[in-house]
Specification:
The chain folds into 2 domains: 271 residues, Aldehyde Dehydrogenase, Chain A, domain 1 (3-Layer(aba) Sandwich); 181 residues, Aldehyde Dehydrogenase, Chain A, domain 2, CATH 3.40.309.10. Helices cover 38% and strands 21% of the residues. It has 15 helices and 20 strands. The protein has a 7-stranded mixed beta sheet, with helices on both faces. Strands 9-8-7-10-11-19 form a 6-stranded mixed beta sheet, with helices on both faces. Strands 5-6-20 form a 3-stranded antiparallel beta sheet, with no helix packed on it. Strand 7, helix 5 and strand 8 form a beta-alpha-beta unit.
Length: 476
């Protein structure tokens, strides 16, 4: 059984204690990951600190060129990395590019693109005021050492979202992968770390306490976190003690609203992937669908026809579109929510029962007959289950979309774009898509509202978020 290593100061680092990483489709042990000690976490932070000044002092053009070398390294190793995603996270291999089945190859392609885009962006000096007496400029400076905590649902892509803008801006990074998907992320960092100077990017790994040591350390200058609200609250508490700024993406319970003039058949595929990309294990999935009563039956039928024909199985087998739920904790939560819906009198349109056999496979499940207040509507399922709720009045649908504390994304579906935009403007979410859902882009800021976090990633605003502004004011 191979034991994988952390990557600190350009060198592999092991630990006396290890834990197993499992294939969620088969239960196979893929390898052993190190459990970092508190001393090793401090050593990783120290390595990042020692490297940061020289890294920030490099000419911007050099950092941009190295980012493009990182992108090329990802591209060259894409088959290897995609297999890690499939075997460890579960999403099928799928295809490449935005128009293909969004599986592991898509995730690695996204890593390449989300590396190239920050490398193409500039943060020039901004002259914010000038007259005959003074000139005021805003310069963008790196924070220093960034702590990143990556999740298990998109283990490579979200790690890239956290790491690449940070180092592009002159920071150095210590990243902790999820304990459920550690090995693939460690391999990604090892490969791209070989392109970069020692200490620019470092890893620690292990259970939640390792992440706690990382974000609580006074040597950290900025925190990037994607994960659950309760964990985010703990990180925010730790950050507050050291006055450390954070970017938090805390998941959501995205509402999708089909207006009375929507076209169920034409929009079914977009709705389907908006809800079920990555088996519904995406923060910005549509997790509750509100459909006008005049469209309800044809919408349910169109989604049912799609859900029942999507191939599900071990993602290493070509042709698979759906994989397993990534871990037993999440699997048990999905089962519990569906069972609670049954007890509440819901109608299971399709799916609704564990598949059995090895792996955490759960069928694509559509549920009707629920209302606001039922667990499956109010709690983020983060799995392959979609409650579809009937409404009569658009005002009621908007109120339903806004009633929860979650506010990451939402969508409005309509044949009338102007009408849809009016509804979208009233929804309390960081992003509201029209006639699509979850369609992020590396140039478009992305972040949550309310309990879904704060701060943004992606594009110029995302790059600014890993810098601090410094005003230089000159008297003429």
């Amino acid at each position: 059984m191979k034991t994988y290593m952390n990557f600190v100061n350009g060198q592999p680092v092991g630990s006396e204690r290890t834990f197993e990483s499992l294939n969620p489709a088969t239960g196979e042990v893929l390898g052993l990951a190190p459990i970092s000690t508190a001393e090793q976490v401090k050593a990783a932070i120290a390595a990042a600190r020692a490297a940061q000044s020289a890294w920030a002092a490099r000419p911007d053009a050099e950092r941009k060129a190295l980012m493009m070398q990182v992108a090329e390294t990802i591209k060259k190793n894409a088959p290897y990395l995609a297999e890690w995603v499939t075997r460890e996270q579960g999403k099928p291999l799928g295809g490449l590019g935005p128009d293909q089945v969004p599986g592991a190859r898509f995730e690695v392609w996204g890593c390449e693109v989300w590396t190239q885009v920050p490398a193409s962006l500039d943060l020039p000096v901004e002259v914010v005021f000038e007259d005959d007496t003074r000139r005021d400029e805003v310069h963008r400076k790196p924070f220093g050492v960034v702590a990143a905590i990556a999740p298990w649902n998109w283990p490579l892509l979200i790690a890239i979202w956290q790491m690449i803008p940070s180092i592009r801006a002159g920071n150095t990074v210590v990243i902790k992968p999820s304990e459920y998907t550690t090995l693939g992320t460690l391999e990604l960092v090892r490969l791209i770390g070989e392109v970069l100077p020692k200490g620019v990017i470092n890893t620690v790994s292990g259970p939640g306490e390792v992440g706690s040591w990382l974000v609580s350390d006074p040597g950290i200058d900025k925190i990037m976190f994607t994960g659950s609200g309760p964990t985010g609250a703990k990180i925010a508490e730790a950050a507050a003690r050291n006055m450390v700024p954070t970017t938090m993406e805390l998941g959501g319970n995205d509402a999708a609203i089909m207006l009375p003039d929507a076209d169920p058949k034409a929009m079914a595929m977009g709705l389907f992937w908006g809800a079920f990309i990555n088996m519904g294990q995406t923060c910005a999935c549509a997790k509750r669908l509100y459909v006008h009563e005049n469209l309800f039956e044809p919408t349910v039928q169109a989604l049912k026809e799609l859900a029942e024909v999507m191939p599900m199985g071990d993602g290493m087998n070509e042709g698979m579109v759906m994989g397993p739920i990534q871990n037993k904790m999440q699997y048990d939560k999905v089962v519990s929510l569906v069972e609670s819906a049954k007890k509440a009198g819901a109608n299971i349109v399709c799916g609704g029962a564990p598949k059995g056999g090895p792996g955490y496979f759960y069928p694509l499940t559509l549920v009707t007959g629920l209302k606001d207040g039922d667990r499956l509507v109010d709690e983020e399922q983060f799995g392959p289950v979609l409650p579809i709720i009937k409404y009569s009045n658009v005002e009621d649908a908007i109120a339903s979309a806004n009633r929860l504390d979650a506010g990451l994304g939402a969508s409005v579906w309509s044949s009338d774009i102007e009408k849809a935009k009016q509804v979208a403007g009233r929804i309390q979410a960081g992003t509201v898509w029209i006639n699509q859902h979850g369609m992020i882009h590396p140039m478009v800021p992305f972040g949550g509202a309310k309990g879904s976090g704060y701060g943004v990633e992606f594009g110029l605003e995302g790059l600014k978020s890993v810098t601090r502004p410094q005003v230089i004011s000159v008297k003429k």
